[in-house]
Design a protein that fits this description.
This protein is mainly α. The chain has one domain. Helices cover 72% and strands 3% of the residues. The protein has helices at residues 6-19, 30-54, 87-103, 111-130, 134-155, 160-187, 196-201, 206-223, 232-239, 242-267, 269-296, 300-319, 324-355, 371-384, 391-404, 411-440, 446-451, 459-477, 480-507, 523-527, and strands at residues 63-71, 76-82. A two-stranded antiparallel ribbon has the order 1-2. β1 (63-71) and β2 form a beta hairpin. α4 (111-130) runs antiparallel to α5 and α14 (371-384) packs parallel to α18. The protein is globular. Residues 503-528 have low confidence and may be disordered.
């Protein structure tokens, strides 16, 4: 079994299974939903087995690698592999997508098409994290957008077409930068190649690196999302259904963070040293701006959506910290937010199914009749506000420590960044606890209680939240469960980043030392 093509199987199995859905005899969707769930469980079992038997925690390089010639005329190869950057996100994708399939149990509108798209997304999302060919990466990045667009536009809310169109325009527009950047890197130099490792080994002039980095930052910044490229996300979440919410918050946002680490940091380290202070500033803006905006929202979905944007700001700060612990915190935050974001948005869907309203002003006191929902909302909100003992606390603490102890920035800049980021951290429990009070506590809204059937959570819903809380609490109590998967890779990546700084200092002597004193990188210190 050592030579078995595990990653290819994991990617193609749900896609091939999806192609069989049209011939399954099913009228009411009950058969096809069990079929999709079983396919998801089998594929997740494949992921776990491949990880346990073919992945070495102490090897920083590519593992489970496979490469097959596909279109030799343009050097397009089916090349897949996993390292510390991709393996945790592949496991997360299998876990969240399988739970999202279970969350889609109540779907009755065009169930065959819905589960067909869900299985396509399953394979497409894993492919984004596994492929090691730049052209193939662009293709799977684009193909993965189509199921999301259709799920939003067919099963969304009243403004679903607007939200879906905005999503596809933002993400497809950003993808043009991926294509142009990939072609530029592939054709640069004496050899033409789309292999990511070969591209990363090329030596690009600094000016070209800066252009490529800027283009990729726009493309992946849309997906992360980074202010001001974030406006599609609240609209998409505002109209999405619970399973789509889980995939958007749990996986799609992580694609942007993963690509930034894989390509911007790993392939363009010199440019990253120049852009790193900008990433820190953008991360702080994400944290503070989105926290204030979330605080002001009266729509439950949009409140959680802006909360997601705020939490993803820590990923930017961590990857620009130039420290091992900061980089580790960025990876941990991506996985942690995937679990917490999926749980919160699933609860939003559960609450809406019972109250048929998303406006906080129209809720109140529903915790009296829905005690299980009350408990689940409380636990998941505590995780989101980074309560000690849960994964969010460890991730954000690691980012703070990593940036505070970084020798790449001067003290003034670090103090300003930490104080501003702390404002977002303080706001998070305020708006989340206020949200809980308005939904669950206080006097009951008599009109809501009289006209809606406020039944408590059913076993399926309790199981989904319990499944998400187990890793959230497990990682919070023992982070090494997750960090050991990627530590060797992120340590190597941090060393590459730090090695680039003194080189940049030598290449740009005309820059005055104090011109950007708040943003300056202390190159001599990093070089020691």
């Amino acid at each position: 079994m050592e030579n078995f093509p595990w990653l290819t199987t994991i990617i193609l199995f749900p896609i091939v299974a999806a192609l069989l859905i049209p011939i399954i005899p099913d009228k009411d969707g009950k058969t096809v939903r069990w079929y999709a769930l079983i396919v998801g469980l089998i594929d997740f079992a494949f992921i776990v087995y491949a990880f346990n038997n073919g992945y070495d925690l102490h090897t920083p390089g590519l593992q489970l690698a496979e490469k097959y010639t596909w279109v030799p005329q343009i050097d397009l190869n089916w090349s897949v592999g996993a390292d510390g950057l991709s393996m945790p996100l592949i496991i997360l994708t299998g876990f969240i997508t399988t739970l999202a399939t279970l969350a889609a149990w109540p779907v009755t509108l065009k169930p065959k098409l819905f589960y067909f798209l869900m299985l396509l997304m399953y394979g497409g999302q894993i492919a984004v994290f596994a492929v090691q060919d730049m052209l193939l990466f662009f293709l799977v990045w684009e193909l993965e957008l189509v199921p999301v667009y259709l799920i939003l536009s067919i099963w969304g809310g009243k403004k679903r077409l607007y939200a879906a169109t905005k999503f596809i325009l933002y993400t497809a527009g950003g993808s043009l930068f991926i294509l142009v950047g990939s072609l530029a890197m592939a054709f640069y130099g004496d050899t033409i190649t789309f292999d990511m490792q070969a591209i990363a080994a090329k030596h690009y002039p600094l000016n070209l690196q800066l252009l490529l980095y800027g283009g990729f930052l726009i493309a992946y910044g849309v997906k992360l999302p980074i202010f001001p490229l974030h406006t599609w996300l609240p609209d998409a979440h505002g109209e999405a259904t619970a399973p789509a919410h889980m995939l958007l918050a749990g996986i799609l946002l992580k694609m942007g963070g993963y690509a930034l680490l894989r390509m911007n940091v790993g392939m363009l380290p010199d440019a990253h040293a120049v852009f790193a202070p900008i990433l820190v500033i953008l991360g702080v803006v994400n944290i503070v701006y989105a926290a204030f905006t979330s605080f002001a929202q009266r729509n439950l979905k949009r409140k959680i959506a802006y909360s997601s944007i705020s939490h993803m700001g820590f990923v930017l700060i961590g990857m620009a910290s130039f420290t091992d612990i900061g980089m580790s915190g960025a990876m941990l935050q991506m996985v942690s937010h995937g679990l917490i974001g999926a749980s919160l948005f699933f609860l939003v869907g559960c609450t809406y199914d019972r109250t048929h309203t998303l406006m906080l002003d129209e809720m109140g006191g529903v915790g009296v009749k829905m005690k299980k929902v009350f408990a689940m909302w409380t636990a998941c909100s505590m995780a989101s506000l980074a309560l000690p003992g849960m994964s969010g606390f460890v991730a954000e603490l690691m980012v703070f420590i990593g940036f505070a102890t970084s020798d790449a920035y001067n003290s003034t800049f670090k103090v300003i960044v930490i104080l501003l980021a702390a404002v977002g951290v303080i706001l998070t429990p305020i708006y989340l606890l206020s949200m809980l009070r308005e939904i669950l506590y206080g006097p009951e809204n008599k009109e809501l209680v009289e006209h809606e059937n406020l039944v408590d959570a059913e076993p399926r819903e309790v199981f989904i939240i319990a499944s998400l809380l187990v890793p959230i609490i497990g990682i919070g109590l023992y982070p090494k469960i997750l960090t050991q998967i990627y530590d060797s890779t992120t340590t190597q990546l941090t060393a590459l980043m730090r090695h680039s700084v003194p080189t940049l200092a030598q290449k740009a002597p005309e820059v005055k030392p104090n011109k950007w004193k708040f943003f300056s990188l202390s190159a001599p210190k990093i070089g020691k």
